[in-house]
Amino acid sequence: MPGGARISFNCVDSSLSSLKNCQSYINTGMDIATHVALDLVESFNDVEDVNSIENVMLEYAAMDRELNHYIRAIEETVNQIKREKPENIPDLKDLVKEKFTALESKNSDSDLQRNEKYIYFKDQLKEMRKQCKSYLKKK
Known about the structure:
81% of the residues lie in helices and 0% in strands. By secondary structure, the chain is mainly alpha-helical.
């Protein structure tokens, strides 16, 4: 067929939209975890409890990174196919998996600590601890 095979990406676009909705769920979870940790600090709970919330935040950051990589892999694959207009329809699943694996292979733990919400979480904890210490000094 001249000009390559015609492929409809409506289903892929719909699925991408759903995946992007999942990002808001991750953000909401991170917001809730931040508030819980701040409440724990404010009520002078055990440091271990706050540390477990920090681990939860790192898990959320990992989910966020993985989801972003998956969305990016899909978008790049779709754009590549639209640009190249191949004669034969390629295996989208394999192409996405290949791009996703390449993105994931560059992961490091320090990436998680650079997550915007995680940084905000750490800053908020630091501020709350300062406030609590100054409150205790006043007593």
